[in-house]
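User: quick one - fold this with flavin-adenine dinucleotide bound?
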Amino acid sequence: MDRRVFNKALLAAGWAATYTSGAALAATAGAVTKIAGDVEAVTRTGGDTTLSKAALKELQAALRGALLLPGNADYESKRRVWNGMIDKRPGLIVRCSGATDVMHAVDFARDNDLLVAVRGGGHSISGKSVCDGGIMIDLSPMRWCLVDPDARTARLGAGSLLGDLDHESQQFGLATPCGTVSHTGAAGLTLGGGHGRLSRSFGLTCDNVRSVDIVTADGRFLKASAEENQDLYWGVRGGGGNFGIVTAFEYDLHKVGPMIYGGPMMYPLDQARDVFRIFAEFTAEAPREMSADVIALAPPGRKGFAILSFCYLGDHAEGERLLQPIRAAAKPIVDQVRPMLYNKLQTSADSGTPPGKLYYNKSGLMTSLEPGFLETIADRMEMAAGRPDPAVASNIIVQHLGGAVADVAPDETAYVHRDARYDSVILSAWDNAEFNDQNIGWLKDAYADMEPYSIGFYSNHMVDSDEPKLKRTFRGNYDRLVALKNRYDPTNLFHLNPNVKPTV
Ligand SMILES: Cc1cc2nc3c(=O)[nH]c(=O)nc-3n(C[C@H](O)[C@H](O)[C@H](O)COP(=O)(O)OP(=O)(O)OC[C@H]3O[C@@H](n4cnc5c(N)ncnc54)[C@H](O)[C@@H]3O)c2cc1C
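Assistant: Sure. Structure tokens for the protein plus flavin-adenine dinucleotide:
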């Protein structure tokens, strides 16, 4: 059957609420876990508790997806997340096949006062999507995407990756803004805001959310949109996983490509200082159809690069004309900017951040790129290139925001930083845990020089958060988020996230 007809048929059949995809069932299928006895677990507040065999059997019987316990065949692989630094062992993992499993898992967690981790794509640096001793509510089997090409919308299961959304949407020449690495989870990215190559034209990922299906701490299944539960709809667009577990997203799609004018220009790392300056000058004036990032890479034992990466959504000849001054200012050693498939660009950075390496990052949002900041990051990359440490890759990435992101008022969604025109991230990756302290120390030290230039933080890059940091993350929206938390999650069941603490 034609994909378009197939999707329409599913939409007409009213699949939305508790749709369980074939992929989800396949991913959760396998031997039924044998529950040998009671299981020791950790509570919401860090205490010890015992889950009885009978209670676990009752939970298992209610689920369509698998319940995994320590010692089960799949437990070891499913507790793992993208960041190899995270090595946590949940008391139990619920591999949800759909919203119904999520509701059972939330009820079980609340009734047993368990520590709760929620896993979407499992791609956060913080790794808070897994926990020690608590329940890991794993949405990764809920990986499906249904596009309605006529309505220009996509419905997406909460375990989907960005590549799933792009792949299905681009079949119809459509897309919504999302991140720059296709194996990132859509759920975490969207709930914290979400920015990428289309954001200057069409806003943040969360600006393109029409509705979500969400299970709140009391186990209710709600829809949140401009028409229903408007307070929740406001909060899930930037407020992260504080208010419940989103089981499905509905996005607006836009006409994009499939051919765009874009790709990378590469320079030797020792030209990074000039490349940063060129990037700052170019992005200060670029039209909103043009998106650019700069990435400086210092890989271990190899020559590094400074890379300018572009995505222009307008006429290709005009894109070429816009980039002419850059090509004239500094000749790249590799120039792959050309008409190319949007999807190819969207997957072009995937291999640079494979799962399983040890990662750490720090980041800050900026309204402009001050000369002092550019000097600082150039100095730091010079130092990174000369570091003797074994097998550590250090990257600085500056993503260009502004444009349509700034069309939305700061209080219109929970994501507040509408004035930020740049997101700068310093990211290190290495293989040997012996060097964790050394590498994290180096990165924190480097970031200390960058931080004074930032106006606040993007919650999706945060590794840890205290109240002053959260106040700089949510700024003028913080008190409203606290009020929402008081209403929907007064016991702070969902707190493994940039946590807005309830005050009731
Ligand atoms: C290599 C790399 C590139 C990145 N590039 C970009 C980028 O271009 N643009 C950008 O905006 N961000 C980017 N990010 C940041 C990214 O947005 C976050 O890492 C995000 O948390 C990933 O979502 P996830 O679902 O994969 O993560 P997970 O680890 O699964 O989840 C992170 C947190 O989100 C919450 N959560 C997840 N799913 C749900 C749900 N369904 N309901 C409720 N809460 C949930 C939980 O609190 C969880 O702890 C990048 C990150 C990395 C590591």
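One thing worth noting: Residues 371-385 form the longest helix (15 residues).
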